[in-house]
């Protein structure tokens, strides 16, 4: 029983570590989500709103840089980083089964990365990040009524993400980030007294040490 409880504690601790330090950035012009920095293991990985990974780093990421240099056997990886010190970096090979993943990051050290493959049900997700370590990443699917969120980030692990949809009466939030986990963003919807600020960000509430949203 003690061993079982210890295992549960380690699992929960690991889950908290994976989801800790999530930093989202919103455009100051469109108020749409731009990037999300995720702390996964020892690495900070930057996930873009379009479902791509732009960079990664770690406090103690030091050492010699090695690159893939075989144009024949490493065709999809050629010229890309192979390792930094002891940290190995790998990319998806090009094959009939990995068309949407070819050349994209497959692993950073012991953190694996996977991508959505294209199908009749995942057209808007094809080629976008599906998993980082144990974090599942999903995107808003097709909606016959309102597709204003189509293909945008919907969930990262247990963090739910939402955007303003079409509203005939009030378009102040349309396609703008309104929810990122516990963080809520509100926009000015006064068309009369303070009409010059209509649609501008009015408030952010819910930022904390683990999850936060900033406007840049």
Name the descriptors.
216 residues, mainly beta, 1 helix, disordered N terminus
Structure description:
The strands form 2 sheets. Strands 5-6-7-8-9-10-11-12-13-14-15-16 form a 12-stranded antiparallel β-sheet, with no helix packed on it. The chain has a 5-stranded mixed β-sheet with strand order 4-3-2-1-17. Residues 1-19 have low confidence and may be disordered. The protein is built from 1 helix and 17 strands. With 216 residues, the protein is mostly beta strands.
Itemize the secondary structure elements and their pairings:
Layout: H1 2-19, E1 22-26, E2 33-40, E3 43-48, E4 53-57, E5 65-67, E6 81-84, E7 87-91, E8 105-108, E9 111-115, E10 129-132, E11 135-139, E12 153-156, E13 159-163, E14 177-180, E15 183-187, E16 201-205, E17 211-215
Parallel strand pairs: 1-17
Antiparallel strand pairs: 1-2, 2-3, 3-4, 5-6, 6-7, 7-8, 8-9, 9-10, 10-11, 11-12, 12-13, 13-14, 14-15, 15-16
């Amino acid at each position: 029983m003690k061993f079982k409880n210890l295992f549960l504690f380690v699992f929960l601790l690991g889950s908290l570590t994976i989801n800790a330090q999530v930093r989202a950035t919103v455009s100051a012009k469109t108020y749409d989500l731009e990037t999300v920095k995720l702390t996964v293991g020892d690495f900070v990985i930057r996930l873009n709103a379009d479902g791509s990974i732009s960079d990664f780093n770690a406090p103690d990421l030091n050492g010699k840089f090695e690159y893939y240099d075989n144009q024949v056997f490493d065709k999809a990886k050629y010229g890309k980083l192979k390792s930094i010190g002891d940290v190995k970096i790998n990319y998806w090979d090009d094959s009939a089964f990995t068309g949407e993943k070819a050349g994209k990051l497959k692993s950073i050290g012991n953190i694996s990365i996977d991508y959505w493959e294209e199908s009749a049900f995942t057209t808007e997700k094809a080629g976008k990040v599906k998993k980082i370590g144990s974090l599942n990443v999903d995107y808003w699917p097709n909606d016959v009524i309102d597709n204003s969120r189509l293909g945008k980030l919907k969930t990262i692990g247990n963090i739910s993400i939402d955007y303003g949809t079409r509203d005939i009466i009030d378009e102040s939030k349309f396609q703008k980030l309104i929810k990122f986990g516990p963080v809520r963003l509100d926009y000015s919807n006064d068309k009369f007294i303070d009409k010059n600020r209509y649609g501008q960000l009015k408030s952010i509430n819910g930022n904390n040490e683990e999850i936060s949203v900033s406007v840049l």
